Amino acid sequence: MRRDYEKEKKDMVVVEGSYAVASAVKACRPNVISAYPITPQTHIVEELSQFIADGEIPNCEYVMVESEFSALSALVGSSAAGARSYSATTSQGLELMHEVLFNVSGMRLPVVMTIANRAVSAPINIWNDQQDSISQRDTGWIQLYAEDTQEISDMTAQAFKIGEDPDILLPVMTCMDGFILSHVYEPVVLLDDDLVAEYLPPFEPELKLDPKNPKTFGAFADPNSYTEFRYLQQQAMDKALKKIEDAADEFYDLFGRYYGGLIDTYETDDADIILMAMGSIVGTIKDVVDKLRAKGVKVGLLKVRSFRPFPVEAIHNVIKDAKVVVALDKNISIGLNEGALFTETKATLYNTKIDVPVIGFMIGQGGRDIPVETIENIVDEAKKVIDSGITVESQFTDLKEELL
Amino acid sequence: MTIPPGGVCAPGSTLVNKTGGWRTFKPVYDYDKCIKCKLCELLCPDASIDPRDDGFFEFNYDFCKGCGICANECPKGAIEMVLEEK
């Protein structure tokens, strides 16, 4: 992370995370916003509908719909017609969009959607974990995870820039931890309209719906060509690896704030133990790293910013010399007893010469607090792996035995 | 052919996908019973029933999937679903 807090101080305002996102979307000059309110995303779209009602976003229409399925379906049309299109959702709403998520990415429509990450039902739970967006990892959307309110705000502009690049043309989910980021008030530098205009060119797709020049979007593809569509989507994801880094670098040049491209690292250069995580938890981990470094423990943090495309090479470069890697996941693949970051990291090491043990912990589900002590205990478990090898690959943390 | 992003194409691409090959039963008119009411043409979900100059209709078997809606809806029972022969 590279930022000049002293310089930023005079521009900082204390706002709610959701307001910072809405304000960032406003600065990106969208043409169509369609969303259905769902906790904890609601404040974002409430603010946006107010902006539009007040005439603060010119040439923008807010489409009210009866469900999340319709919200994203409306954006399929608007984005295909060449309109910069935005939505926000979470949890059950995102799962209801599942079918349309594939349509958006398959039709190569660069819709941007903020996910205020939340647990999924049942049992019903409105608090934060990342099961909702992780469940959509194979839908062909770029997935970026933000650490704090400032990052999710800035990531919004980067998302439009990445997705709308003619070489990419993929939809982007920007993920923020529900409540922890969406409902927190903290000092933020809101995006400056003029700077964003310089950073983000207008959306002008080469192919779009136009009554004067009719086109067919999302047409039939039989077995002769369907594979090639998937291949081309994968190619676009491959190109996005570079584009995500470029977008972060260009953003730093203009705005002076940088949070990493595909990944970011903290004290990893000589680390024996590397903790991997996504989202707001990396802030807590940094505190733990500071605390343990002061005691002489060689521990570092690998923050994964881009989950799709998965930055295999960038991750390998960081973890190759570590003695143990620990993936912390706010999600679980039920039946495999593993979180996604753990599974994917482990899988990418197969058939390589990198021989580093990887263990996983599923943590903070359904909004359970993640105190510093929990991370410290996890580091203790990692130390055991260095001493005696892996005994347990992946496990739940902080289980309450009295409830079982 | 190269695929543009998203497979965007000019209208009319459906004409090359001759979906009639999936059919098991095919509809056949009994023109003696037909009263030219046009319901079959209106209700065909694949637009594979074409009007003729004499006011009757005919099936476009290149695209008819054999769903049988026309036969089901015909008020005069003028359409029979017949097993497709290879």
TrEMBL record, chain A:
Chain segments annotated as transmembrane: none
Recorded superkingdom: Archaea
Entry's EC annotation: 1.2.7.1
One of the GO biological process terms: response to oxidative stress
UniProt domain Pyruvate flavodoxin/ferredoxin oxidoreductase pyrimidine binding: residue ranges: 24-247
Alphabetical keyword list: Oxidoreductase, Pyruvate
Matching InterPro entries: PFOR_II (IPR033412), Pyruvate:ferred/Flavod_OxRd (IPR050722), Pyruvate_synthase_PorA (IPR053390), Pyrv_Fd/Flavodoxin_OxRdtase_N (IPR002880), THDP-binding (IPR029061), Transketo_C/PFOR_II (IPR009014)
Pyruvate:ferredoxin oxidoreductase core domain segment(s): 271-375
Catalysed reactions, semicolon-separated: 2 oxidized [2Fe-2S]-[ferredoxin] + pyruvate + CoA = 2 reduced [2Fe-2S]-[ferredoxin] + acetyl-CoA + CO2 + H(+)
Keyword Electron transport among UniProt keywords: no
Subunit-structure text: Heterotetramer of one alpha, one beta, one delta and one gamma chain.
NCBIfam families: PorA_Arch
The protein's name: Pyruvate synthase subunit PorA
Native source organism of the sequence: Methanococcoides methylutens MM1
UniProtKB/TrEMBL annotation, chain B:
Domain 4Fe-4S ferredoxin-type: 25-54, 55-84
An annotated Gene Ontology molecular function: 4 iron, 4 sulfur cluster binding
Entry keywords, A to Z: 4Fe-4S, Electron transport, Iron, Iron-sulfur, Metal-binding, Oxidoreductase, Pyruvate, Repeat, Transport
Pfam family, one: Fer4_21
Glycosyltransferase found in the keyword field: no
Cofactors that this protein relies on: [4Fe-4S] cluster
Listed PROSITE patterns: 4FE4S_FER_1, 4FE4S_FER_2
Record note on quaternary structure: Heterotetramer of one alpha, one beta, one delta and one gamma chain.
NCBIfam families reported in the protein's UniProt record: PorD_Arch, PorD_KorD
Protein name: Pyruvate synthase subunit PorD
Taxonomy of the source species: Archaea, Methanobacteriati, Methanobacteriota, Stenosarchaea group, Methanomicrobia
